[in-house]
Design goal:
The protein is an alpha/beta fold. It has helices at residues 54-57, 73-76, 79-85, 94-104, 175-184, 209-218, 232-244, 254-265, 304-309, 335-347, 368-378, 390-402, 449-461, 494-511, 517-536; strands at 5-11, 20-25, 28-32, 48-51, 63-67, 90-92, 115-117, 123-126, 129-135, 144-150, 153-157, 186-192, 223-226, 248-252, 290-294, 323-326, 351-353, 380-386, 417-421, 426-431, 436-440, 443-444, 463-470, 476-485, 541-548. The structure holds zinc ion (2 copies).
Amino acid sequence: MEQKLKIIPLGGLGEVGKNMMALIYDEAILVIDAGVMFPENDMLGIDVVIPDFGYLRDKASQVVGIILTHGHEDHIGALPYVLREINAPIYATPLTCGLIEGKLERYELPCEPEIHTVQAGDTVGLGPFQVEFFSVNHSIPDNIGLAIDTPLGLVVHSGDFKFDYSPVHGQPADFATLARLGSRGVLALLSDSTNAESPGFTPSERRVEPAFDEIFRSAEGRIIVATFASLMSRIQQVVDCAARWDRKIAFAGRSMLESVDIATELGYLQLPEGIEVDLGEVDRLPPHKVVVMATGSQGESQSALARMAEGRYKQLKIQPGDTVVHSAQIIPGNEELAHRTINKLLQRGAEVIYGESAGVHVSGHASQEEQKLLISLLKPRYFVPVHGELRMLHAHARTAQRVGMAPEDIFVVENGYTIEIDRECGRVTERVPGGYVFVDGASVGEIGPAVMRERDALGRDGVVVVVAQMDENGTVVGLPRISCRGFVFVRESGELLDGACQKALEVLSRLANGQERATLECSLKKALEAYFYSEIKRRPSIMALVLQAEGEKALG
Ligand SMILES: [Zn+2]
Ligand SMILES: [Zn+2]
């Protein structure tokens, strides 16, 4: 039988976040990344979202390896959940390994994970796949792309990438390797689409330095810089700036502290002797001698910056004269929270420097010209835009066409669509599950669309509970009790609720004799729905409970 290569995106295609991809040849499955996504505004009560990897569940023993391209949460965050069900060896660079080891310690796993440290330039054999790692730039050090040799040809996965000729960390992207791969012939290129709508080149990380120098030169009070905990090059740049302008630096937020520890230990972050102080010491220093780096650029409610903005952060209170530098891109979907935080900081009298024009952030992802360069170096037979919402994937497909790719050789697909390639051609075939798996507290995947719809209805219209009692003969005892939450202000709605109570009594008296309890509850619910709608045009969720006394022990 003809052998086929299957490429199945399980996350990250059609959305920003929870990246995960499966490559299948014969029986062997290679998994690339296992990330989380932060819940969208309408995902009420959800902590994080992980990919639906149900497709792999009964094939767990066929997984030959899990490769993590870099240490961002949208690439490693779901690893603990994946390892609970799929025990496969993990391959990642030193910093990524450091970050996942810290993370895995907090989870209980069925067995000790097998973690292999690899470097750009290494090649490992995993079943039928020979995987070569090459360096590309991004907003975290030790980021890699993958050149995966399969029996049908070479598949290149860009990872998250940009081309930076003067990076703060590490080397510029490995153009020589990319050109060598291109000259060997590339079957398929899977490439990062995050910035596919941005024309031109993404500037070098170095670009932010003059803006920071200007801020440090002119700020008279404390400086607070908010960025991603994983953006180590930015942390290094702020540390260097602090050293140049003679300020001490403190770090705020658990993930920021963890990340600084790991990066310092592994040599990715250089802190000059004596420059770091504890957050607790900040108040004892003159304001113009202090810079604080904090998490919370996305407005996450429990982050250091959001708590400072709301005055709930004990160690540091925002005061007039503080300068807050928002040095991060706001991820699509987080705008509302991030802007709310900025507004609250302004209310407290801080000066806030943010946004594109301030020059205090550059993206970690390639823009159109870099995307063209990658395609031109590799000259792939097939092209699959990955990592991004559908509009970004389509923009990336248009860019590929502009550098000469035929539309029929480009596969724009969302999660779960299988791309199948054989010796003759490539095509999109079956669809496997590729949706959301919600994590809420300790429950993983138990909350589905039905529960989310209920939460949404409760949030929108509130809930009314009616409780009625009957004696052993089926006669209603006393008045039904009505309570509600999130529906109306009880103290001002006596008339409405009394009316509901009368309505309930009427229904019960009419139907009570000889009816099943469930039937009664259902009639009660319908009658109250109709009542509230006719009175105030609202549809709260109604729960009706009829309690029936048994034998001698009559209640009430
Ligand atoms: Zn990334
Ligand atoms: Zn990413």
